[in-house]
Amino acid sequence: MSKVNFIIVEPSFIVRNGLVNIINEQPNAIVLREIEHTNSFFDNLNLRKVRVAIVNATLLHNLSIVEKKKLIAIKPQVFIVALSYSDSEKYENSEELIDLWLKLSESQSSVTKKIKDIISRYQTDSLQQETAGLSEREITILKDVAMGFSSKEIADKNFISPHTVITHRKNITRKLGIKTVSGLVIYAILNKIIGVDELK
Amino acid sequence: MKLADAVQTNLNTLNVVARFDIKLGFGDKSVERVCDEYNVNADFFLEILNAYNDPNYFPQKHLQSFSVTEIVEYLRKTHRSYIDDEIPYIENRLNQMLDGCSNAKEIGLVHNLFTEYKQELFRHLTWEDEKIFPYAVSIEKAFVGGQVPPSIKQAILTYPMANFLEDHDDIESKLYDINTLFIKYLPPVNKQQLCLKILKDLSLLESDLNNHSRIEEKVLAPKVIEMEKQLLARI
Asked: Under an 8 A CB cutoff, do B177 and A189 touch?
């Protein structure tokens, strides 16, 4: 089972370390990066498969408009938790940016529950990805196969050799447990890889 | 060996027993005895049972002890059982399952796949019934009669049995896919028990068809190929 990756952006060493400990205690989570300020935040978000970012609320608030937009753009992949030092802290128009508030004053059970909820949410996501298990390339090939293209045509379309196409097809069949083109068509429709009207 | 013991080692062989028109309730009688009573060639019967029990079984000894006509007669009966019983039976159950199913659209896709398979299978069976079997029987006739008419010579040269082996495709993959789709990818059906029965039926049919293909490839074809060789040598 894959782990849910966290990144922590928090200037205080004590608070940061505390968070790292809480998260690393969970069986299916790991903190990939701890950073003190938001300067290298985006690089880290893009580089790693970060699922959850816990960010100091003041730092979040002080992001430029461009940076906020950038963050909103990658939001579908990353869950943003705002870490607030005060109980009353609130920012205007923050709903778009922030998925969840976490306060320093919260009790142990409340904090642990929030962390666990986030993990289980993404754990099921990654589980589904694992069961499908197809790479992006394989999904492209599967789509072409399902739409009725021959291996030769698929090779030309994707600028790869027919031999590579055959290897991909073998791997798709092995991973999915489906041997025939008709079976793959149904799989592709069920998983919305192709629409019914796209069929040749 | 007792027939009951042979059958109970692998219940799939019950299909074979039925195709030889042997009725159940054979008590402790030996295979030979039952075959005698039903006027079935015991060597051939055992050959078929062996082919069902062991995928790697390759007959050698008994090749001459039963005729191509006998094999073909059995194979034709098997084809009939697929066309008249087994496929319609599964089809009916699929229809029943689809009836009132809340995921009818998705399940319908698999129903279509089964229909596709059925058509492919029937085409395949008809091709064998109309082309391959008559050819095999005519080769045997020429072989036994000692005469090689020009038409037979021509037939051997145009489409020998070895070509049949090459063209004999594995069409059972679709059945396998239907099972995979139900088990892994399709949304649940309302009539789950019925679905389980269908899955078992499909998997039994798949293995029965594989055994059937093996008899064609390992019992019928080698015998015909041997006769072709000897016939050509005579000319």
From this structure: no
Element (H, E) at A188: helix A181-190
pLDDT band at A127 (very low <50, low <70, confident <90, very high): very low
Phi/psi-derived region of residue B27, left when phi > 0, alpha when psi is between -120 and 50, beta in every other case: left
Asked whether A145 and B148 are in contact (CB, 8 A), the reply is: no
Judge whether B173 and A179 are in contact, CB under 8 Å: yes
- Cβ atoms within 10 Å of A172's Cβ, excluding its own: 20
Q: Does the beta-carbon distance from A179 to B176 stay under 8 Å?
A: yes
Reading phi first (left if > 0) and then psi (alpha if -120 to 50, else beta), residue B98 is in alpha
Question: Which two three-digit tokens encode residue A27?
Answer: 């069986």
Enumerate residues 114 to 143 of chain B having a beta carbon within 8 A of any beta carbon in chain A: 116
How is residue B28 written in tokens?
Answer: 């402790």
Query: How many angstroms separate the CA atoms of A139 and B106, rounded?
Result: 20
ipTM value: 0.80
Measured CA distances, B189 to B77, B104, B108, B202 (Å): 35, 8, 11, 17
- Is this prediction's pTM over 0.90? no
- In angstroms, rounded to a whole number, what is the distance separating the alpha carbons of residues A138 and A13? 44
Q: How many CB atoms lie within 10 A of CB B133?
A: 21
Say if the Cβ atoms of B109 and A183 lie within 8 Å.
no
**Distance between B114 CA and the closest CA of chain A, angstroms:** 10
Percentage of chain B beyond pLDDT 90 is 56
